[in-house]
Amino acid sequence: MPKSRLVAASLEGDADEVESAFYDALQNADIERLMACWADEDDIVCIHPGGPRVVGATAIRATFEAMFANGSIRAWPERVRKVQGLGSCVHNVLEKVEVLTPQGPRVAWVIATNVWLRTAQGWRLAAHHASPGTASEIQEVSDAPSVLH
After folding, report:
1. Which domains occur in the chain, in start order?
2. What are the CA-CA distances from residue 74 to residues 21, 27, 86, 98, 119 (Å)?
3. pLDDT tens digits for 79-101?
4. What predicted TM-score, i.e. pTM, was given to this entire model?
């Protein structure tokens, strides 16, 4: 099977800037801009909250097109934790998601990990793994420093 080609992206900058473009595309239901954020690799992967592992650009695009059929995804990354190397960067984010309910807009939280690769086209998304959060703001558990200075 031939490798699917993504639309050439005119995205430049670091992983933070491409991540910002990714969330902007979600909020505007812009499938072309969203897919331009993804790496041009056969094994890119996306896992939506509670969903299966979706592999490859064609399958990932189809899942986002299905979601966009219901409108944009009002999600904003908050409390980003980053680990960066020379050619990769991992962002763990708490996504604040606005959900329309019969009672009006409500806020829900999703925990997501975005894995970024430095490619010939710049920083691109290789994996997006989102897990269900809670209806209230997620509390973070972290190590407290053992020595205070």
Report:
1. 15-132 (3.10.450.50)
2. 14, 5, 31, 5, 28
3. 899 999 989 999 999 999 998 88
4. 0.83
